[in-house]
Write a structure and sequence with these properties.
The chain is an alpha+beta fold. It contains six helices and 14 strands. The longest helix is centred in the C-terminal third of the chain and has 18 residues, at 212-229. The structure holds uric acid. Residues 176, 187, 234-236, 262, 290 line the site of uric acid (URC). O2 binds at residues 76, 262.
């Protein structure tokens, strides 16, 4: 018979009857990547919402790990079914949908103290037919994938919105110069190069009252605007400018993190063929690539490490 003790943070379980010194640490579980598509068809003009949802519960699941007692284990199959059932009422926004799931699981089961809910969402656009958007035929539209994470930790709720794979390129108004030169440096300085990246950004809301869809569209527009409008002295400068614009315009966002590859485009030497190459023919290298990551935040903002746990690829 195992005597268990749950430590204060409810994630570390000490098996006190066992002197092996081996304990259960942090744990979470759930159903990953539930692909749910919701069609709203109240009228002939249908709407579509397309998500990939992951649900993970945190709380007292010690006895399942230590004793094979599943009395606290809300089945991952049940979590999957809950996602589909909740979609029956519509999604609204990925963030609002995940918040609903968080409320449901934490209020329905005493021992569920929190969890992590994540979504990717894929945009569809009406197919243009006879000068108008079709009622029920769509083409995948967004160049990017929208992302959302909700972390429930006791009574606290953390909401992180984001996007990834927003691929952008500009053919001029970018350079890179002034960097240190040592015996290994071969890179030539330039004031006119191609700048290309796949923007991945995640931003954390510090207010509970947010029109998530509207803010998403505006943040996306601000990121593109920053990429476009400013001469880029480095991808780092462009990244900070993107973040600064977002924080200036959106008081409900406390911090924004970026991870952006510098997708190098090398000018091809055409001299062997008797041709010049005034920045017109490039070799688009897929690897290696520079990888530029940074957080843009408000001075004095209280950090929220629990919100960011489990988000890979951002510093
Ligand atoms: O925008 C850039 N940032 C760098 O840090 C860097 N390093 C490099 O070789 N090229 C570039 N470009």
């Amino acid at each position: 018979m195992t005597d268990t003790l749950i430590a204060n943070d409810s994630t570390t379980t000490v098996n006190s009857a066992d002197d092996s010194g081996i304990i259960l640490g942090a744990n979470q579980y759930g159903k990953a990547e539930v692909r749910v598509v919701k069609v709203t068809r109240d009228t002939a003009r249908h709407e579509i919402e397309d998500l990939n949802v992951t649900s993970q519960l945190r709380g007292d699941f010690a006895r399942a790990h230590l004793e094979g007692d599943n009395s606290h284990v809300v089945a991952t199959d049940t979590q999957k079914n809950t996602i589909f059932a909740f979609a029956r009422d519509g999604v609204g926004s990925p963030e609002a949908f995940l918040l609903r799931l968080a409320e449901h699981f934490t209020s329905s089961f005493d021992w569920v103290s929190g969890g992590r809910w994540e979504a990717e969402s894929f945009a569809w656009q009406r197919i243009e037919a006879h000068g108008a958007g079709h009622d029920h035929s769509f083409v995948r539209s967004g160049q990017e994938i929208r992302t959302a994470v909700v972390v429930a930790d006791g009574a606290d709720r953390h909401v992180i919105a984001g996007l990834k794979e927003l691929t952008v390129l500009k053919t001029t108004q970018s350079g890179f110069a002034g960097y240190p030169k040592d015996r290994y440096t071969t890179l030539q300085e330039t004031a006119d190069r191609i700048l290309a990246t796949d923007v991945a950004a995640r931003w954390r809301y510090t207010s509970p009252e947010v029109d998530y869809n509207a803010v998403y569209e505006n943040v996306r527009a601000l990121l593109l605007e920053a990429f476009t409008e400013q001469y880029s002295a480095a991808l780092q400068t462009t990244l900070f400018d993107m973040g600064r614009r977002v924080l200036e315009r959106h008081p409900e966002i406390g911090e924004i993190r970026f991870s952006m590859p510098n997708k190098h485009h090398f000018v091809v030497d055409l001299a062997p063929f008797g041709l010049d190459n005034p920045n017109e023919v490039f070799y688009a290298a897929d690897r290696p690539y520079g990888l530029i990551e940074a957080t843009v935040t408000r001075d004095g903002l209280a950090p929220a490490p629990v919100a960011w746990e489990g988000i890979a690829g951002f510093c």
